[in-house]
Here is the input.
Amino acid sequence: MPNCGIHVYTIDFTSDIPFLFDEICCGANIPVLHPLNLGWGGGVIVIDQHSRKLTELQTDYRGFELCMAQHILKELMRIKSVPDYLPSIINEYARIKEPGVSPPQLSVGSFLIASICTTLMYNLCLKKMLKHFLKYILKLFSEKYEFGKNQFV
Here is the structure.
């Protein structure tokens, strides 16, 4: 499909490059997907020229993944839809956080992220409306959720 450029940024936030990458892509009208593995779940943030930017959540790349995970947890708490495992995963990650160490990444989360990204890329190519940052697309696996049920927050 012509004019259907999409970038998926899967590299850890170890410098300010993700912020610059978003700026360059948005300037070229190319949407960027930022996947986040949440162990037994996954989330994807969509950034484009019309969305808010990652730097509105935090301007420093250090600890950005943890900040994003805490933002998602806070929003899930607000709507009372927190899976049992998520707070402990995020708290443990915050406790052991060392420079250059990524959050725990289970293959379940990776598979869910892949499915979310595939769906988003398909929808972007068809010019369908999407949720943009500070909103995100989330799939979770727990006793409270039907497997693969989309949570749009």
